[in-house]
């Protein structure tokens, strides 16, 4: 869960210009309109994650700008101050040097832009809310930035089926508010909801807080409108739950990080708004107990279980120390946040009571507290959601987003602690137990190449040995593209390359992202 | 919902040899090893659905058979009696003339077979339980039949996460039984469960009874192992709920009807087994009331609603007349079958009681009955599930499987009745309201080309005018391949053709299926 995005002001307009902070694990500074990389002193050691050389795309000319100004009048931004926040990711870890930001309002405008860029061999970086964590939504060099920020129309909503269609630039939180007034909710919820765009959510196959209950976007997205690299508009914007007429093309674009096409509209199946929400904060003596508690609550809470998140005692210390958040229960090695949501408050309360009684009686859980009112629910959730914020106060962060068989997820934290010994300041684990998704963070007083070398490739090798994923929900973007082979066989990566070549033969769409360098 | 498949004995071994029955809407008879079609008197008029000429694939030689016997010793079937049931679909509406049926046990064997067939330019028809309804799983000419029937191993089951991995030939019902012993269920259920294979379910993106609750296979299938046309084994058999490392390749194969690769193993996320199941049979005066009742029950039954199915009074008459099934309630224009499944029998009962009270008080529902015990549940379900059986006793059937915005689904039945006037014996509608999926059937005393000409393309044009799908869950197969343009724009179909050409350049996999003829 990218809860840290909550810290990020909308569109990041207040980022310091041309500076970088120390709280990023991998930072690059690329020159403006030059052929080679700037290699500032703070650039990390060359590694698999380093950016490749600029590919031979054309460079923006005055004629290009004139064309863009004709297509999107008043919405072709070249003012460096205005461009600044689109050139840098919200972690301030990746910075490009684009000279033009285009803000189309329609798929037709996107189509004209891409057709032109494809013919001119101009590279393009699609950008939604720019809340990604792997450098996928900002230019690496001077790519044209194509923003969905002005594509904010809700197109249709069917209150019988709960199917919403909207343009790609709708902010997730705005969609949630729109739906809640109509007794529905979005099937996904993220910390970044105040900034992220639904098009970006789909392009990155965002996970988040509701995945355990409502499943992934591969199941809930019913249709997409996508503009392909050559400007063709692919209309797969169905609003049907079932459609078995040929290959399900929209699936290709879900999670492709803008490298195969630009998503311009989305239709999505929305669940009914729950009438009752409860949150419980529990403590467990061991991770094994925490897993047994998960099993128990899947059985006893059944259809009303909507989140099962965990944090370890190191996380709790960070929350206490840096954010002055007191532990709501007694000290334990592990903590769990459980959320239920259902249609009947009495029934939900009874189920929860029975589950808690069983969990306490069987000693799976040593302490706990329950919240039913909004303010206490928020307070308990903050123990989970503000961990990343607390981490930023603990020094330099090395951040990992790992998917593992659920019974293995904490073993990686334990093994990493042992492996690093005294080299790390802190090794902390938290995440979505229900989804088998661990957020592993390692802190250090300052950036420490030797520590990084001890972490990687150890962490990727460990993950691969369990058939895990080195990116559960964050995607590969620029930062992790070359680690893909730890989670995918070369056969699969080669096929991805073929798909890319088929849909974007010139490679203009979001270059240097998702696919590894050696495919180029 | 292909409930009619329940009528079909496992593997259809008792089909009469070389005969065709009259209960199929489109029938073809193709010659054995000849270059031109047999044009028997009962072959329908040439139409979009008719089979194309045989493509220039190689013909099986003795050397080929010798090779196959080496690869799958004792499992390369050439006895015409044994081949018979694999050459014909269960509706007995499409018959091929393959001379060899291969029954591999491993992905490696499938790989060797496909590598060989690709090099020899031999066409291959993958076949699971052969329960499809659109002629997708049988050869059209002399294609090699590649059956998954002997690939029946369950590979792993994780009782914490509920993730099952198994070979493609596992029969759905066997998987259900295996899981129920472990307190889980499969996320899909079909009438054909006693015969259909999980690999075939995934290859056809089967819908069925649980889709309303657990969503489509695009969400619940977590991994696939697929053998490509050239024999390469694509290992995407992840057992992770989240994995954002590159494009989600497995999605391409879900619903591609064996035209892009042969699925050899599947991993799937399984829900917990419900502790409580209730079924209600209700009557409504109008379809509008039926839709309002759907809205009401989505709100009041919420998370325990697991099916919302309907039938019209014409269906009820067929059930009474042909199967002697009495109406369990008083006569109404429309009937609804609602199923709940949950984790607490008392809570579920209370929710259902409250919903029924509200539905009756508000006059949305005029009569109803509830079942909580197994035998009565089965009896009520049979009112929905045995409609197709009843239809077969009513004459020649013209069958359609249409997806529409939920508020439009019965309008098509009404319009069709008006459009056909006295030309049809009966026009009946039933299906999955919750999924917007209508099964529209038209009966006639005998096959009637004039009637067919009145139905088609009217039904497809009507569906297209509502942005519906001409195949909600049955797929396109042989029978509907050329109607694809009613539901997909040419841009999308062209891209499907490019994907086919990329993955299967010689077109050996399940030729004449899914994609329209004019792409070849």
From TrEMBL, chains A, B:
Pfam family, one: FAD-oxidase_C
Requisite cofactors: FAD
EC nos: 1.1.99.39
Annotated compartments: Mitochondrion
Gene Ontology biological-process entries: malate metabolic process
Principal subcellular localization: mitochondrion
Keyword Flavoprotein: yes
Catalyzed reactions: (R)-malate + A = oxaloacetate + AH2
GO molecular function: (R)-2-hydroxyglutarate dehydrogenase activity; FAD binding; metal ion binding
Keywords, comma-separated and alphabetical: FAD, Flavoprotein, Metal-binding, Mitochondrion, Oxidoreductase, Transit peptide, Zinc
Its biological purpose: Catalyzes the oxidation of D-2-hydroxyglutarate (D-2-HG) to alpha-ketoglutarate. Also catalyzes the oxidation of other D-2-hydroxyacids, such as D-malate (D-MAL) and D-lactate (D-LAC). Exhibits high activities towards D-2-HG and D-MAL but a very weak activity towards D-LAC.
Family: Belongs to the FAD-binding oxidoreductase/transferase type 4 family.
Protein name: D-2-hydroxyglutarate dehydrogenase, mitochondrial
Species the sequence originates in: Perca flavescens
């Amino acid at each position: 869960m990218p809860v840290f995005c909550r810290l990020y002001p909308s569109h990041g307009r207040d980022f310091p210009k041309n500076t970088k902070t120390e709280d990023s694990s991998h930072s690059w500074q690329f020159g403006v309109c030059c052929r080679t990389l700037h290699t500032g002193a703070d650039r990390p050691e060359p590694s698999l994650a380093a950016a490749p050389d600029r590919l031979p795309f054309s460079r923006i000319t005055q004629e290009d700008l004139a064309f863009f100004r004709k297509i999107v009048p008043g919405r072709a931004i070249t003012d460096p101050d205005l461009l600044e926040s689109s050139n840098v990711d919200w972690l301030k870890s990746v910075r490009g040097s684009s000279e033009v930001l285009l803000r189309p309002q329609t798929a037709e405008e996107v189509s004209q832009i891409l057709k032109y860029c494809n013919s001119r061999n101009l590279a393009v970086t699609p950008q939604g809310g720019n809340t990604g964590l792997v450098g996928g939504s900002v230019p690496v060099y001077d790519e044209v930035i194509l923003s969905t920020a002005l594509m904010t129309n809700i197109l249709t909503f069917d209150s019988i089926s709960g199917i919403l269609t909207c343009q790609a630039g709708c902010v997730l939180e705005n969609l949630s508010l729109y739906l809640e007034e109509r007794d529905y909710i979005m099937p996904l919820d993220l910390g970044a909801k105040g900034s992220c765009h639904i098009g970006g959510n789909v392009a990155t196959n965002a996970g988040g807080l509701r995945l355990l209950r409502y499943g992934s976007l591969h199941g809930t997205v019913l249709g997409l409108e996508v503009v392909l690299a050559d400007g063709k508009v692919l209309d797969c914007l169905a609003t049907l739950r079932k459609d078995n007429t040929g290959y399900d093309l929209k699936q290709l674009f879900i999670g492709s990080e803008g490298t195969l096409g630009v998503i311009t509209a989305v239709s999505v199946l929305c669940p009914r708004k729950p009438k009752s929400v409860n949150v419980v904060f529990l403590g467990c003596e061991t991770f094994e107990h925490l897993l047994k508690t998960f099993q128990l609550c899947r059985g006893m809470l059944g259809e009303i279980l909507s989140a099962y998140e965990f944090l370890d005692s190191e996380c709790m210390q960070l929350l206490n120390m840096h954010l002055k958040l007191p532990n709501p229960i007694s000290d334990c090695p592990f903590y769990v946040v459980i959320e239920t949501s259902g249609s009947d408050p009495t029934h939900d309360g009874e189920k929860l009571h029975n589950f808690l009684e069983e969990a306490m009686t069987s000693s799976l859980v040593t302490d706990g507290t329950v919240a039913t009112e909004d303010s206490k629910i928020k307070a308990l959730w903050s123990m989970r959601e503000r961990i990343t914020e607390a981490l930023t106060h603990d020094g330099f962060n090395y951040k990992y987003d790992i998917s593992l068989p659920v019974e293995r997820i904490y073993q990686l934290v334990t093994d990493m602690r042992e492996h690093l010994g005294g080299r790390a300041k802190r090794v902390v684990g938290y995440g979505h137990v229900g989804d088998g998704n661990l957020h592993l963070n390692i802190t250090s007083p300052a950036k420490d190449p030797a520590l990084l070398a001890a972490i990687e490739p150890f962490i990727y090798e460990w993950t691969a040995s369990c058939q895990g994923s080195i990116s559960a929900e964050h995607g590969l973007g620029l930062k992790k593209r070359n680690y893909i082979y730890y989670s995918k066989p070369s056969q699969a990566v080669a096929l991805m390359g073929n798909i890319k070549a088929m849909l974007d033969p010139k490679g203009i769409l979001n270059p240097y992202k998702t696919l590894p360098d050696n495919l180029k």
